[in-house]
Amino acid sequence: MDEDEDAEEKRRRMEAKIAAENFGAAIGFAAGAALAVKEKMDEHAAQEEQKKQQQEQTMGGLG
């Protein structure tokens, strides 16, 4: 009976460890995805700012 309880406890620890690892991987993936989205948004904002500056220079040259 004691061996059965030990085996059950070992199984529970292993399942908890696997669950924790999976959770950590999911958090890491989500953080990576969020960072990628932020970088794309920053890149887009920088491109828009560059377009705005080019338009201002062009308009300033015509006046």
Protein architecture, described:
This protein is 97% helix and 0% strand. The protein has 63 residues and is mostly helical. The longest helix is centred in the middle third of the chain and has 61 residues, at 2-62. The radius of gyration is 27 Å and the shape is rod-shaped. The N and C termini lie far apart (93 Å).
* Largest pleated sheet: none
Question: What is the CA-based Rg, rounded?
Answer: 27 Å
Helix/strand order: H
Percent of residues in β-strands: under 5%
Specify the overall morphology: rod-shaped
How helix-rich are the residues, as a percent range?
over 70%
List keywords for this structure.
63 residues; mainly alpha; 1 helix; 97% helix; rod-shaped
Quick overview:
The protein has one helix spanning 2-62. The chain is mainly α.
